[in-house]
Amino acid sequence: MKKIEPMIKKETLYVGAWVLILSAIMQAVFLIIGKWDYTVLLGNILTGSASVLNFFLMALTVQSAIDMDEKDAKTKMKASQSLRMLMMLVVVVIGVTVPCFNIWASIIPVFFPRISMMFRMIFNKNK
């Protein structure tokens, strides 16, 4: 197995930090509206961590696909995307169906990595 590139570690930490920040904001919103209980925290932990893992696995796939020819790289990327989407679907279904997870707190964190990338584009645009 190849060594993990420093850029992958850096970007995963960036996404993980934003997921933590956005998760704290979501927890605060649930608390403010009076709907917070332990299921909100558990749902947030479940899908927030799965979302960061999904980003990390995507980055590892890109790292390994760089050294391949175009056809093999495209096949590898498609397979990776399919498996990662299946993983996220299973995680969200667990979060929605198992009573110890809040439904909304199990769905909303799926979007946190995408939001973190939007913030990255906004902040980098100003540099």
3D structure, described in words:
Helix 2 packs antiparallel against helix 3. The longest helix has 28 residues, at 38-65. The radius of gyration is 16 Å and the shape is globular. By secondary structure, the protein is an all-alpha fold. The chain has helices at residues 6-32, 38-65, 70-97, 103-107, 112-125. It has one domain (6-117).
Give structural attributes:
about 0% strand, about 130 residues, globular, mainly alpha, 5 helices
**String of helices and strands:** HHHHH
The outline comes out as: globular
- Our Rg estimate from Cα atoms comes to 16 Å
Give the number of helices: 5
How much strand content do the residues show?
under 5%
Query: On the 0-100 scale, what is the average pLDDT?
Result: 95
Q: Mind describing the biggest β-sheet? A: none
Number of strands: 0
Q: N-to-C terminal Cα separation, in Å? A: 36 Å
Which spans of ≥5 residues are poorly predicted at pLDDT below 50?
none
Assembly category: single chain
Total domain units: 1
Helix content: over 70%
**What class, by secondary structure content?**
mainly alpha
Give a quick rundown of the structure:
Helix 1 runs antiparallel to helix 2, helix 1 (6-32) crosses helix 5 and helix 2 (38-65) packs antiparallel against helix 3 (70-97). The chain has 127 residues and is mainly α. Helix content is 80%, strand content 0%.
Summarize the topology.
Elements: H1 6-32, H2 38-65, H3 70-97, H4 103-107, H5 112-125
Helix pairs in contact: 1-2, 1-5, 2-3
